[in-house]
Design brief:
The structure is a single chain. A 3-stranded antiparallel β-sheet has the order 1-3-2, covered by helices on one side. It is of the alpha+beta class and about 100 residues long. A hairpin with a 2-residue loop joins β2 and β3. It starts with 8 loop residues before the first helix and ends in a 12-residue tail after the last helix. Helices cover about 20% and strands about 15% of the residues. It has a domain of about 55 residues.
């Protein structure tokens, strides 16, 4: 027994395209607090004696808790941060860094 199906003329017709008007509604702009945060950039610190506690304290102070990620692998620190740390900030994280007393 073989079944055959007949297509009706209504199934083969496509619906008409929608009509566009010049009076379109205002475009939807998402609220700033609903937007995804910008992607973090990867900064690599290598060939330095870095104190990981100082580095984490500086990242907490600059970016806030949970807005950064620090990983250590193969004698390199991998920082996932919103903005790169400048050289002066990285120097403060050195293991042997000491602030000089103010000169008189």
């Amino acid at each position: 027994m073989v079944f055959t199906f007949k297509k009706t003329s209504k199934q083969t017709e496509l619906p008409p395209p929608p009509r566009y008007t010049a009076h379109a509604s205002r475009p939807i702009i998402p609220e700033p607090h609903l937007l995804a945060p910008p992607p973090n950039q990867l900064q690599i610190i290598e060939n330095r004696y870095v104190d990981d506690e100082k580095l984490s304290q500086i990242c907490i102070k600059l970016f806030g808790l949970g807005n950064y990620d620090i990983r250590y692998k193969s004698k390199k620190f991998y920082l996932s941060v919103p903005v790169f740390l400048d050289q002066e900030t990285i120097d403060q994280c050195d293991r042997y860094y000491q602030e000089l007393p103010p000169s008189a």
